[in-house]
Write a structure and sequence with these properties.
Elements lengths: L13 H12 L5 H10 L8 H12 L12 H11 L4 H8 L8 H32 L30 H27 L15 E3 L2 E4 L2 E4 L1 H9 L6 H6 L1
Antiparallel strand pairs: 1-2, 2-3
Helix pairs in contact: 3-4
Keywords: Metal-binding, Zinc, Zinc-finger
Protein name: CCHC-type domain-containing protein
InterPro entries: DNA/RNA_pol_sf (IPR043502), Retrovirus_Pol_polyprotein (IPR050951), Rev_trsase/Diguanyl_cyclase (IPR043128), Znf_CCHC (IPR001878)
Length: 245
């Protein structure tokens, strides 16, 4: 039993219990680590300026910049926003401006993106119009292709030179393949002692008709014209004529 004369100790308040539990579950973050994460944050390629600034603000909440009187939070956000932009062109433009703050720096960045995107669209339309004018026989840009009127001495067509002609490239590839096959055939000849003639070699042919026989994917079999010739041949009276036939 408790001594009735002893005073009961004060019971902890619910808020004190919650704070103690939070300190155990979520230990306080180190300021140096949080500021390091803030300094390393850069804009992602698929991230808009507004989204990038929101991410920086979220990281700055745990950096305790307010306590640093030499560099207020807004200036740090502005500088980090500029230094971490993905586009170097936008960085160069912002670094030449005065009186930038954490609010208008995002506005200037978005305005720069819209302006240059519109300029790219207009430039693309100008190139398309120049191509259309050239195809219709009117004035055209000479920088589009300096070989548009050049004549190819391989195929006789205009618009390219002979050394880049597709027909010449196809012919060159066929010759290279033929030379490769002939080299392989010579290797087989030397290994097995065979006699080969280049004029009688057919590389890549689906079938070869030789001496009344056909050689194809079904191996060797008698040619149909030879079978028909045997059927239509007159009867031979002498056995020597059969042997000759």
């Amino acid at each position: 039993m408790l001594d009735e004369g002893r005073k009961c100790s004060r019971q902890p308040h619910i808020h004190e219990i919650a704070a103690t539990a939070k300190s155990i579950i979520e230990p306080p973050r180190l300021e140096t680590q949080e500021r390091f994460r803030f300094s390393q944050r850069k804009q992602n390629i698929d991230e808009t300026p507004t989204e990038y600034m929101s991410a920086l603000r979220q990281l700055a909440l745990t950096c305790d910049f307010v306590a640093d009187a030499t560099a207020p939070e807004n200036r740090r956000l502005r500088d980090k926003f500029i230094f971490g932009l993905a586009s170097q062109n936008i960085q160069a433009d912002l670094l030449t401006r005065r009186d930038l703050d954490v609010k208008n720096v995002v506005t200037f960045t978005e305005r720069y993106i819209r302006t240059h995107k519109t300029a790219e669209i207009l430039q693309g339309k100008e190139i398309i119009n120049s191509l259309k004018q050239g195809s219709e026989g009117r004035e055209k840009k000479q920088w589009i292709c300096k070989f548009m009127d050049a004549k190819c001495y391989n195929c006789g067509l205009n618009g390219h030179k002979a050394k880049v002609c597709k027909k010449l490239s196809s012919k060159r590839e066929k010759n290279q393949l033929k030379q490769k096959n002939w080299t392989m055939a010579k290797t087989v000849k030397e290994e097995f002692g065979m006699r080969l003639c280049l004029k009688k070699c057919h590389f890549g042919a689906p079938s070869v008709n030789y001496l009344g026989h056909i050689i194809d994917k079904n191996r060797l079999h008698t040619a149909p014209d030879k079978v028909e010739a045997v059927k239509k041949a007159p009867n031979q009276k002498m056995s020597m004529n059969y042997d000759h036939f």
